[in-house]
Amino acid sequence: MPGRRVIFHDYYSDVPRDQVDRLVQSQELARLITVGDDAIPHVGLYPFVYDAKTIDLHLVRADEQIKDLKARPRCVLEVDEILAVIPSYWVSREYAGAATAYHRTVIFECEARVVEDSAAVAAQQQRLLARYQPEGGFRPLDPESPLYRGAMAQLAAVTLEINRWRAKFKLGQNRPVEARRQVIAELRKRGRPNDGRAADALQWTIDARAER
């Protein structure tokens, strides 16, 4: 069965780079998509470090995605923020097709470099820990230490060179401002865990337009 491709309408994909970077830096996990020998895509979910040019992540050396990347370094990394699904009657009293979902998504097309040297793996682990555990609370990483030697021997450091990125911030930009304001009000009234963030995201589309 063919997969559905993401449609990048201009009103969804016209996103400033600083907003893309802010979204990516705010997320804790990203999806790595590789292609196997049988042309079947493989997907993994990983913590990562992002600097706008490269993305660092680590995998177990025996993982099927490491095999994929060694044979086919081209891959895709996807970062997203799922915000809300809304009922159609918030927008139209009759048209069921007005029901929709709001999300912010960035897709990176990359070239991967896989390194299995223990010192390089340890250096990358330091970068990951600096992001996810900056307060410390662990013994310094030494690939020769008995505490870490076994784990380092099982990991591979993967660096993704970003060749191209595309963003899709699907936040109701196809609707008039007044319709978006109505949805914002309904989201705040409904009050599900992510509804406040969704309302703020839709408000951003109105404020950003007003600033132009």
Description of the structure:
The model has no long low-confidence stretch (mean pLDDT 94). This protein has a 7-stranded antiparallel β-sheet. Strand 1 (30-35) and strand 2 form a beta hairpin. With 212 residues, it is α+β, with helices and mostly antiparallel strands. It starts with 9 loop residues before the first helix and ends with a helix. The chain is elongated. It has helices at residues 10-13, 17-26, 64-71, 118-132, 146-152, 177-190, 195-211; strands at residues 30-35, 41-46, 49-50, 54-60, 74-86, 100-115, 155-170. The protein has a single domain, classed as Electron Transport, Fmn-binding Protein, Chain A (Pnp Oxidase, Chain A), CATH 2.30.110.
Quick gist of this model?
The protein is an alpha+beta fold.
Main sheet makeup: 7 strands, antiparallel
User: What fold name stands as the CATH topology?
Assistant: Pnp Oxidase, Chain A
- What general form does the structure show? elongated
- Strands, count: 7
The end-to-end distance, rounded to whole angstroms, is: 43 Å
Strand order of the largest sheet: 2-1-5-6-7-4-3
CATH architecture: Roll
Show unreliable segments.
none
Compute the gyration radius: what is it?
Answer: 21 Å
How much strand?
Answer: 25-35%
Top-tier CATH class: Mainly Beta
Elements, N to C (H/E): HHEEEEHEEHHEHH
Mean pLDDT: 94
Give me the CATH superfamily. Answer: Electron Transport, Fmn-binding Protein, Chain A
Name the helicity range: 25-40%
Number of domains: 1
